[in-house]
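Example 3.2
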Amino acid sequence: MEWRPESYGNRFADRYDELFAELDPADAVEKLAVLAGERGAVLELGVGTGRIAVPLAARGVEVHGIDASEAMVARLLEKPGGSRITVTIGDFADVPVEGRYAVVFVAFNTFFALTTQEDQVRCFENVAAHLADDGVFALEAFVPDVSRFDRRQRVGAITVELDEVQLEATSYDPIAQRSTSQRIFVSSAGVELAPVVIRFAWPAELDLMARLAGLRLRERWGGWDSRPFTPDSEQHVSLYGR
């Protein structure tokens, strides 16, 4: 199987909202609405099923999105208010849209779906080209923790229920900073596999990518609620601008 930009969305579309139902978008929606203010439109990279985009548009913000998976976008358009989102199908590394935006954002580790450093650098460059002069690029991602792996691999149970077991098996390539995972669903109906390939980066590397694109770090929080970013933070929301 060749991994492509749409692979993740096409395999997870039917289950995505169920799997991540515990993720409350309220803090992200509030912060992005404040960042956008009355300055202009917002663009989400990897808009998916509209977990953030739909409630953000309901706040009166003009929201555009990019996603490579037509299956994920179909889920978005089925939701009440989903038709408010202007969606472009394509690889978000290319930012294949016209115009400039007050805010461009990528949430919930989606930036790491770009599986090479070259793609990630290209994304930063293309985001910079589509930012308004005072625009902000907001990036939410986890802080890598390679101690999770034992001999560059990890196997674990995600959920164990009476009618289904969810497992995860992951291998880690430290040279490419890339992990390849399988989310495994085992039930009386059979076995279903949902692969995930990501290329993770530490905050300092992301900051360097921003500098190469002519951007700089403005703020970094430990989450969308603006909590301080500390050495113990497991995630970050980083804001970049000119």
